[in-house]
Amino acid sequence: MHSSKKSGFSLLEILVVIGILAVLLAILLPALARVGVTSRVSVAKAQMGTIVMGLAKYQEELRSYPPDNSPTSNGSEVIASYLTRRISVGSSSYGPYVQSGTLYDKDGNGHSEYLTPFTKPYYCVRLVDQKNVERGFLVVDAGPDGKLGGTLDPVNGFVQDGSGFDKDNIYGPSYLSQ
Q1: Mean pLDDT for the stretch of residues 67-84
Q2: What angle do CA 62, 129, 134 make, to 5 degrees?
């Protein structure tokens, strides 16, 4: 006698397995996305430290910080222009202070940009005291959301605007001139 029972999976069994896999993916994908953001934040902090050290070396050698509005007011263009290339002053040559990595002309204005790991521009400002004497340089990465959540002021540094977007900002450790 032969049994008429078929081997294989029924449609219901396959649908149950697909449903279980879908639930598992729904649980795992957000966790994997958080790991990606966390790793980019770590890279951003390390890159910020490199930029701050480059600014310190620039200031030590040239006795001034780079302008924060040249070639444009875009902080990423300032970093690319002053920290990633050789600068000649008279017969002396200085820099580069930061490895250039990949430079972009994201806004198409002809000036290269040194972008954050989130492919956003840096924000920067030369810090001065009440008498307009240079006292440091502040660099800010707007973080994963790309929103600064405030303004950079030469006297007061970063000024929050109350929007809450500053919560994921990554700040360069303040390097102040001695």
Answers
A1: 82
A2: 5
Contact call for residues 157 and 138 (beta carbons, < 8 A):
yes
What would the two tokens of residue 58 be? 């620039």
Judge whether 7 lies within some domain. Answer: no
- In 3D space, the residue among 52, 109, 111 whose CA is nearest the CA of residue 83 turns out to be 52
Range of the domain at 93: 12-176
Q: What is the mean pLDDT of residues 22-47?
A: 87
Task: Indicate the number of domains in the chain.
Answer: 1
pLDDT at 174: 59
Closest by CA position to 86, among listed 48, 51, 58, 114? 58
Beta carbons of 19 and 43 less than 8 angstroms apart = no
